[in-house]
Write a structure and sequence with these properties.
Blueprint (H helix, E strand, L loop, with lengths): L6 H10 L10 H12 L6 E7 L5 H7 L2 E8 L2 H10 L6 E5 L11 E7 L7 H14 E12 L9 H11 L4 E9 L2 E8 L8
Parallel strand pairs: 1-2, 1-4, 2-3, 4-5
Antiparallel strand pairs: 5-7, 6-7
Helix pairs in contact: 5-6
């Protein structure tokens, strides 16, 4: 039985507050978004996947650098706001999905997890990592951005990210690690000569 947080947890959060983490107004979040975008190794991506888009603030920044972007979230209330916030970007599509069980089809040049993995338990993180390796383009990049302060989530940010990186060993190279007050940023890239299709 999974100990990953269920959709009802997030539904309750958004029912109580339309922006529970202050993504639209927090100076901390804005600085983190700038660091996230600056960490992308390419100026433009053909196809990208954002897992856990919430209300779409970071989604809009990503959309400006992607020919096609699929943004997922488990909460319909968040997706409704994201569609409004990203209305100027017709190449962005949104879907309600709970990972890893509802992983999307397709191949992606960029896969982004921002403040997501620690909501999952160890086995769900490993299953998610397997999906990522199978759907990442041969020259693709995975970016992980996670809070590292104590929480009551299933895993800490550090433990969740390290579990994900370990699950990708031999298929993705851990290319960059940046620590900032309260969060960490990690980049994984396809290893030269590796076959991410498994």
């Amino acid at each position: 039985m999974t100990s990953s947080l269920p959709p009802s947890y997030f539904d309750a959060l958004y029912a109580a507050d339309s922006d529970p983490w202050r993504f639209a107004t927090s100076d901390y979040e804005q600085a983190k978004y700038r660091q996230t975008m600056a960490s992308l190794p390419r100026e433009r991506y053909g196809s990208a996947l954002e897992v856990g888009c919430s209300i779409g603030i970071l989604t809009g920044l990503l959309a400006a650098r992607c020919d096609k972007l699929l943004a997922l979230d488990v909460a319909e209330a968040a997706l409704s706001q994201a569609r409004v916030n990203c209305a100027a970007f017709p190449r962005v599509s949104f879907a309600r999905a709970r990972i890893p069980a509802e992983w999307p089809d397709g191949t992606f040049d960029l896969i982004l997890f921002s403040e997501v993995l620690y909501y999952l338990d160890v086995e769900d993180i490993r299953r998610t990592a397997a999906h990522v390796c199978d759907s990442l383009a041969p020259d693709g990049t995975v970016l992980l951005v996670h809070w590292t302060e104590p929480t009551d989530y299933p895993m800490s940010g550090d433990a969740a990210v390290e579990t994900f990186i370990a699950a990708c060993a031999g298929r993705l190279a851990h290319s960059a690690h940046v620590t900032q007050p309260c969060y960490r940023l990690d980049r994984l890239d396809c290893q030269v000569g590796s076959d991410t299709s498994g």
